[in-house]
UniProtKB/TrEMBL annotation, chains A, B:
Listed name of the protein: NAD(P)-binding domain-containing protein
Keywords: Oxidoreductase
Domain Pyrroline-5-carboxylate reductase catalytic N-terminal, chain residue ranges per copy: 4-93
SUPFAM superfamilies per the UniProt record, alphabetical: NAD(P)-binding Rossmann-fold domains
InterPro entries xref list: NAD(P)-bd_dom_sf, P5C_Rdtase_cat_N, STEAP_metalloreductase
């Protein structure tokens, strides 16, 4: 089982926190608003703790559950407090019309977060192609990308503890295309596929 | 059932042609090398015909089964012969390291083909996230993108005739992100997922 710190107190923090607890992991939450963090910890139960925003997380895996434009600022603000951590970026940096990314260049929030992260930290992209409703109740495929095998292995173990299937797509550069896969997922939702109750995944050959 | 013209005589032309015949569609093949086209038509059977390269196809749906850098030149060369047709681009314009696209800008082979296509033609992106082995024998999800509802409806009907499930991701602009999803698919294959015997798709919520 893993020790998880979640930066953020919103819907995604709540959803991932609940699954993490259910999967037998240790969870702490960190919110800019300490009362919101305390409320979330209480709601999650299972021994969930809180820790002051910006201080060194207890968890080996730090999940940044913020809106996409808050991820790099948070990693920058935490700075050396994230040294040695596995930082998980789950964000979807959609453009205003949801048919492209907010950044024009071929980069990703995950790659930018890696630039902002301290030495010894490692960023892994994960979970962004899974709608929240499925993350809450389902057993979806979870695509991951990252440059460090050990960091990816620890995120894979965490994903398995949630009853989900981790699928490695390659180095952190691939986070750009996973963010693009997030765009595809929303495109499907906007064109008649499901009701935000599906996830991207793979299907093995079936004859 | 649909009337299909396939431009190209390679592996993908053979694979799609065979599935199209098995699905009860009418098929013709068009090759620069007429003897190769004749050989393929014979191999496909089911009344498959050939037609001279560059002349107006008989099919309502024209599948361009060429390497990605051959698609726009072929559409340009055919020119007005494609007027009124639904042109299907199935290509994956990978970069040399297979972790990105050959074109740096946020475009796609499908969008460039649409610029080269004559008035009244409509381009639909489809099939590029399905490995050939699965296209040959499986019943995968097939993502499609295009700007014209009627063209997409005809491609969807064709896909259903193959026993596959069409999933609309939106306008032709989304072809860029479907090409990115092709990059993700290859990334998965290169990192231990399957043996080119899977396809990208969606999974509905399963508790």
């Amino acid at each position: 089982m893993s020790s998880i710190s979640i930066i953020g107190t919103g819907n995604m923090a709540r959803t991932i926190g609940a699954r993490a607890i259910a999967g037998g992991n240790t969870v702490e939450v960190m919110g800019r608003d300490e009362s919101k963090a305390a409320d979330l910890a209480k709601a999650l139960g299972g021994g969930t703790t809180t820790r002051e925003w910006g201080t060194a997380p207890a968890g080996d895996i730090v999940i940044v559950a913020l809106l996409h434009d808050g991820v790099v600022p948070a990693v920058t603000q935490y700075g050396d407090a994230l040294a040695g951590k596995v930082i998980v970026d789950i964000s979807n940096p959609f453009n205003p019309t949801f048919d492209g990314l907010a950044h024009g260049e071929e980069t990703s929030v995950a790659q930018e977060a890696a630039k902002a992260a301290p030495a010894g930290a490692s960023v892994v992209k994960a979970f962004n192609t899974v709608f929240r409703q499925v993350l809450e109740k389902g057993r979806p495929d979870v695509f991951i990308a990252g440059d460090h095998a050990q960091a990816k292995a620890s995120v894979e173990a965490f994903i398995k503890s949630l009853g989900m299937r981790p699928l490695d797509v390659g180095g952190l550069k691939m986070a750009h295309w996973l963010e693009g896969a997030g765009v595809v997922t929303v495109g499907l939702a906007n064109h008649g596929v499901g009701n935000l109750d599906f996830a991207l995944g793979i299907t093995e050959l079936r004859a």
